């Protein structure tokens, strides 16, 4: 049964990404990396459920979602952008297969980084980030989600690549076998992959070609 939660605070993250802090129902439980179905508690939108990942930690008093809004069509995320503290969302129970399995490399395409936010925050809070790497692809530097926070996480190696910005000092292009070969030297570690379906499929194939074990890859199924 859906639970009604009020929006308590919104915070801009990038030009089209916001963090939404919302009420946490009593006894509500989730694990870092998990998501829930969310809909907007307003006429015409209550049945339009979309999956969004929790970016809060379990011990926080409130829940948080970090959500990219797509303004090229009148969808849920576009409508969500207009909502303010005091407005309400409807959420279901937590679910998801992207949970932490051990040290490794987190590979994200755009907003696909969101399932990794709470996982990396958990590891940072516990002082257990040494040996972890985040490889993330975005269109331009201004699209990079939580860049400062990730770069300030002690022990986390951050590798950024942009696909649509001339003159950037970051790596250029999509995450592919060549890029992985440059930055990964141990394919026995865990790999966490999230992004568009085609990207996930291609990276899984590249990692297998490079010697990674399919059982060591975690992705949303």
TrEMBL record:
Q: Which domain of life is it from?
A: Bacteria
Q: Which organism is it from?
A: Hyphomonas beringensis
Q: Which CDD domains match?
A: FNR_like_1
- Annotated FAD-binding FR-type domain residues: 1-101
**Which Pfam family name is an example for this entry?**
NAD_binding_1
Report what the protein is called. FAD-binding FR-type domain-containing protein
Checking Gene3D superfamilies in the record gives: Nucleotide-binding domain of ferredoxin-NADP reductase (FNR) module, Translation factors
Instruction: Output one GO MF annotation.
Output: oxidoreductase activity
